Amino acid sequence: MKSSSSRGGARLAFLTFASVASSAPMFALGAPGASTEITAPQMIDAFEGTFGVHPGQRRNHIKGTCAAGEFIGTPDAVALSRSTLFSGKTIPVVARFSLGGGNPDVPDAAPAPRGMALEFHLPGGALQHITMINVPIFAAASPASFRDAILAARPDPKTGQPDPEKLKAYAATHPDALALTELTSHHSPTANYYQTTFFSIHTFKFIDAKGAEHLVKWRFVPRDGTKEMTAAEMKAAPHDFLEKNLIERTRKGPVLWDMRIYLGEPGDPQDRPLPRRRHNRRAWPASRSTSTL
Ligand code: HEM
């Protein structure tokens, strides 16, 4: 594939999935000290208290399916990053598509964010991991705020449902959750895993061959376009369809995403997975972007 670039955005690579393997439950790896506000065990306790304990499976994004694919960087990427990920050589990838949350039996039509986690097998045996979800912003400005969201969603033992009063109190005290609530209120879940855009959300640093640093965000844009479910489709949807749809689609040919990179400018926030203002859904100004969300 030829490389191309346009104002504010450059296609860095493409990713294809030609075959799909079954889902692969794994144990969560601890991340001691990763959070400055709460500890990893506190976060895990919150997940397990709300969703139950499911030995051998992930505490979040528990329902998912894996796929094998390839990733090829373009010359645009080489200008920004010295990583072997972008060398232009074909990099084998294992992907895991998932539904956010810790309920292993969640219906596929549920309005949970969809995840794309990628494991790149770099030359020399190193692994590079990235995770993305299919919304451009996160629901929490900090790990503690995310824990509060998980606690607020805990089912009331009497009803088996989250307590509306607790949800109300959470919404009133966590304005950082508002932007994603607003965004998702006028979107419905994606019809499948392969017709949705996945976002890095966070800002990352690319370091080029001369040692210069570039602040970037990225998104994986599907060549199949995007498709959300209609209300009727949501009602008629079977409990499980996302894995089946993906397998059926890959039988017809490879599924492709373009990785688009957005370059930060001086003054752009580096530590905010949220919008600047409520009505602006991007953490960076629109001029950094050439795509429509
Ligand atoms: C405070 C913020 C966050 C917390 C506490 C958190 C927590 C977790 C946990 C506990 C898991 C399960 C890991 C495992 O068992 O292997 C997970 C998985 C995942 N997270 Fe997060 N997460 C956070 C933010 C994010 C963000 C911002 C993104 C997207 C950019 C994201 C995307 C994902 C994805 C895609 C997975 C599934 C990984 C897979 O399929 O292997 N998370 N998260």
Description:
The protein starts with a strand and ends in a 30-residue tail after the last strand. It is built from seven helices and ten strands. The longest helix has 12 residues, at 40-51. Helix 1 runs parallel beside helix 3. With 293 residues, it is α+β, with helices and mostly antiparallel strands. Bound molecules: protoporphyrin IX containing FE. Residues 26, 28, 43, 58-61, 64, 96, 98, 115, 117, 131-133, 138, 143, 146, 201, 273 line the site of protoporphyrin IX containing FE.
Summarize the structure in short:
This protein has helices at residues 40-51, 75-80, 143-152, 164-173, 178-185, 231-236, 242-252, and strands at 5-6, 9-21, 63-73, 90-99, 114-121, 127-133, 198-199, 204-207, 213-222, 255-263.
Multimeric state? single chain
Rg (C-alpha, Å):
19 Å
Structural class assignment: alpha+beta
Task: Give the mean pLDDT.
Answer: 83
Give the beta-strand count. 10
Largest sheet: 10 strands, antiparallel
* Global geometry: globular
CATH superfamily: Catalase core domain
> Distance between termini?
24 Å
Hey, roughly how much beta strand do the residues contain? 25-35%
| CATH third-level topology | Catalase HpII,  Chain A, domain 1
Low-pLDDT stretches are 1-14, 16-36, 278-282, 289-293
CATH class membership: Mainly Beta
Keywords, separated by commas or semicolons:
single chain; 293 residues; alpha+beta; Catalase HpII,  Chain A, domain 1; disordered N terminus; binds protoporphyrin IX containing FE
What is the element layout, followed by pairings?
Layout: E1 5-6, E2 9-21, H1 40-51, E3 63-73, H2 75-80, E4 90-99, E5 114-121, E6 127-133, H3 143-152, H4 164-173, H5 178-185, E7 198-199, E8 204-207, E9 213-222, H6 231-236, H7 242-252, E10 255-263
Antiparallel strand pairs: 1-2, 2-3, 2-10, 3-4, 4-5, 5-6, 7-9, 8-9, 9-10
Helix pairs in contact: 1-3
